Amino acid sequence: MLRILLVVLALGVTVVGCSQTTVEPVDPPVYDPTPFMLNLKGLPPPPGMPPDNPLTVQGVALGKMLFHERQLSATGTQSCADCHVQSAGFSDGRRYSVGVRGAEGTRQSMAIFNLAWRRPGPQGGFFWDGRSQQLRHQVLIPIQDPVEMDADLDDIIARLQASEGYRNQWIRAFGTDSITSRTLSLALEQFLLSVVSGNTRFDRAQRGELQLSPAEQRGRDLFFREVDPLRGIKGAECFHCHGGPQFTNSQFMNNGLDAEAGFADLGRFRVTQNPRDRARFLSPTLRNIALTAPYMHDGRFASLEEVIDHYNTGVRSSATLELPLMQFNIRPGGLGLTPQDRADLVAFLRTLTDDSLAVDASYSP
Known about the structure:
- The protein is an all-alpha fold.
- The chain folds into 2 domains: 140 residues, Orthogonal Bundle (Cytochrome Bc1 Complex, Chain D, domain 2), CATH 1.10.760; 155 residues, Cytochrome Bc1 Complex, Chain D, domain 2 (Orthogonal Bundle).
- The chain is built from 13 helices and 2 strands, in the order H-H-H-H-H-H-H-H-H-E-H-E-H-H-H.
- The N terminus is likely disordered.
């Protein structure tokens, strides 16, 4: 009898214990301004983070949620991440991205890592033509573009405001559950500024952690060398437009894709109306270039080999063609790169791939 009583008492304690654990109150969300420590991954400090939008742990987390949120599109079927795919270096493997209505764009999706090093303002900016001077402005344009996500900002804000999860995260990130298009853009800006790529074979070789192969080193030498036909020195002259830690000069350039009469896209000219900007486009970073095919603003080249062939013998003359290309690339025989030279250049360009970027859970949904 005593044994039965003990069993009954034990069961009673177990039931009471379980019922108590299910009614513990949940702490309400609170504002958390803990700074987000940007991992530079060996790169030099970015030239200037926005002073009015410092990165915080909760702000970056909210931006990441929004980057992968398909409710930011009119049909609820497309997110920013669908055209900026992590495994493709945050670019799009298609020549032109397809919007929510099935329409194609007219330019290839740019890679959007290391934006903390992109030069903002009237002389820099975002998109191939630099039409947006600040990242926080840029992020709202595809959401509203009828060819892309085709959403109305007021509708998007209403959708987010109806979500308790988003209201709570807004409190953690901004101290209020009142969602606005401005704070939406600031959260997206924070997340995109947190996406850093800097652990390539090239970077590890620069740090002395490994040695480039003979082919990679020959390609590196060609990449950073100027042509001097009088002295018989061969070079690819790539560094003029793709120099520095980010492998870009962050300027708008005409790289000779078309002759004057063949300009289908006037590029920077559409923003400035300056004739000197006809057919000029932002010089993209070559980091992760092996992941971001196809290439050029219109995705016309499917491979790195095609790109190198263009610069070797395919550059076409026009009034706004860059001077280094005009001097050497359009002469008879072009740069005179041999098949081995071109293969070595491809080998070097592949050392600029950061394999960790494609699988880094910090940026995944």
